[in-house]
Amino acid sequence: FGKLFMSLWLTFLLAVLTTFVAVIVADFPVTKPYIVYFIMMPPFVMMFAVYLMETLHEAQLARAELMKMEKMQIVSQMAASISHEIRNPLTVVKGFIQLLQTGRLPRETEERYIRIALEELERAEAIIRDYLTFAKPAPKETEPIDVATQLQKVLQMITPMAHMHSIHVSSSLEHGVVIGNVQYFQQCFLNLLKNSIEAMPNGGTLHVAAENRGASVVITISDNGVGMTKEQVRRFGEPYFSTKEKGTGLGAMVAVKIIEQMGGTWTIESAVQKGTTLTITLPASRLRPPTAEQSAAG
Ligand SMILES: Nc1ncnc2c1ncn2[C@@H]1O[C@H](COP(=O)(O)OP(=O)(O)OP(=O)(O)O)[C@@H](O)[C@H]1O
Ligand SMILES: [Mg+2]
Q1: pLDDT more than 70, % of the chain
Q2: Which of 171, 290, 147 is nearest to 223 (CA)?
Q3: Ligand 1 centroid vs 273 CA: distance in angstroms?
């Protein structure tokens, strides 16, 4: 506010001073329009210009601040959820090591404790691997992947989980080659299929299809589960967005990042209480995947 008043005042003084000099030196005739247009108006125009500049500058500062805050928030959320996920296994391992330290346990118990401790450490390691790989910019080595083979493998992994929830799994998989990292590819579809299964707590049908369209391979995952609202569809893939009690909200983000890394795109069609269909389009490659893999697809 001080700046505005100053600009008004200074411009006014300058105008008066110039007129004063003009009157003395050149006997300048001071008329009414002159007073209005050259003495009264400029200070207000100047004040308005200063006001505009200040407002814009402030808005810019506010935006930069907001962006910084958002970044900080993401980092702290990430740190919080990862430390939360890792703390449990660490607590377990610590407890068992303390028990082992007493040295008065039967041999079998000792072995069991060591095994549990190792399993928990592996879990912690897996959490770090799954969630922190994407903090690094450089992707792992890529190779030609036959989508049918790899999707088949992922389907095998999730079948026990599907059966537990009385979910019928069907698939129609055409062969097609995309370029990517096999582990990432599996991770991506594991996350997505897990979401579909979790969306059908009372059973349903999960259908996975792969279609070879020449220039691209189109993979669809359909479930007739709880579905998503428009808002949920919009937020799909956003870190820490989860509607589940124990969800990390990182599964979809990781999947989306992997799809994008492979140069692919994705769309969601969903209706609440009807189901969800996820369509993933990946650019096809003419390269051949390792033959052993291809024959395994059958
Ligand atoms: N097939 C689906 N049907 C209905 N909702 C879904 C589906 N897939 C994802 N969602 C919604 O998107 C949210 C985010 O999914 P995401 O996989 O990132 O996290 P999550 O499944 O909640 O947690 P986590 O993957 O760690 O178990 C889910 O909480 C759910 O609300
Ligand atoms: Mg999930």
Answers
A1: 92
A2: 171
A3: 15
